[in-house]
């Protein structure tokens, strides 16, 4: 379902540019620089399908990738700090919120959280927004190659505590490293069962 079967379809800057909501899709959302685009590349096994960068604010459009012609994977701009002018960032954020709360075919949001930092206030805003729109989200703790074991255990406990307040949350987390490949097969399997 993944490697040979994914392709870039289009980047969208306004709701009316979206492809028709005629097939199920999953989206990867999270703070700027958390590793959304890298995760899409790891999932598809294609190193530069989605553009990545060390600079927060790399992804500036809602990018649709076709999965096996029958589904979409969706990469979105990050929220929180971005290395771009404020009015521009505000425009992406408005588009992101409109997308997350108004897309009929959105099956699940993978909400990416950095495994070194845990959830922040902006993540909770998105969790609440998804609850209002009745869209399920599942937490993916990214960059699992970075924290030490003890540090990671604390972050997992804290994340569970925060997430349990939000009814839109899917209870299981997935721990991933796009660098080392950890958790990628699990995430692929999860997506397979969803779409
Ligand atoms: P925006 O589009 O700016 O919101 O960022 P993004 O969430 O798409 O992040 P991106 O995939 O561009 O990755 C940001 C940085 O984190 C890059 O320098 C990546 O190489 C790095 N990175 C992403 N995933 C991992 C990971 O699993 N492990 C490590 N060590 N670094 C990672
Ligand atoms: Mg990106």
From TrEMBL:
Presence of keyword Nucleotide-binding: yes
PROSITE patterns hit by this protein: G_ENGB
Residue ranges annotated for the EngB-type G domain, each copy included: 22-195
Cofactor or coenzyme needed: Mg(2+)
CDD domains given in the database record: YihA_EngB (cd01876)
SUPFAM superfamilies: P-loop containing nucleoside triphosphate hydrolases
InterPro entries linked: G_ENGB_dom (IPR030393), GTP-bd (IPR006073), GTP-bd_ribosome_bio_YsxC (IPR019987), P-loop_NTPase (IPR027417)
Keywords recorded for this protein, A-Z: Cell cycle, Cell division, GTP-binding, Magnesium, Metal-binding, Nucleotide-binding, Septation
Keyword Secreted: no
Top-rank taxon, per record: Bacteria
Described function: Necessary for normal cell division and for the maintenance of normal septation.
Entry's family note: Belongs to the TRAFAC class TrmE-Era-EngA-EngB-Septin-like GTPase superfamily. EngB GTPase family.
Full protein name: Probable GTP-binding protein EngB
Species name: Amylibacter marinus
Name of the encoding gene: engB
């Amino acid at each position: 379902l993944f490697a040979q079967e994914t392709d870039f379809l289009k980047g969208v800057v306004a709701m009316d540019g979206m492809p028709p909501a005629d097939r199920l899709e999953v989206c990867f959302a999270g703070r700027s620089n958390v590793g959304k685009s890298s995760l899409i590349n790891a999932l598809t096994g294609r190193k530069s399908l989605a553009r990545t960068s060390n600079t927060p604010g790399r992804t500036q459009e809602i990018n649709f990738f076709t999965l096996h012609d029958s589904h979409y994977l969706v990469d979105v701009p990050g929220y929180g700090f971005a290395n771009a002018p404020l009015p521009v960032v505000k425009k992406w954020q408005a588009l992101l919120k409109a997308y997350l709360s108004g897309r009929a075919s959105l099956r699940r949001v993978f909400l990416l959280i950095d495994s070194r930092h845990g959830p922040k206030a902006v993540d909770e805003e998105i969790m609440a927004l998804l609850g209002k729109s009745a869209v399920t989200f599942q937490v993916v703790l990214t960059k699992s190659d970075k924290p030490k074991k003890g540090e990671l255990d604390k972050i997992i406990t804290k994340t569970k505590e925060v997430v349990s307040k939000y009814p839109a949350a899917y209870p299981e987390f997935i721990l991933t490293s796009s660098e080392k490949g950890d958790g990628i097969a699990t995430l692929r399997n999860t997506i397979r069962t969803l779409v």
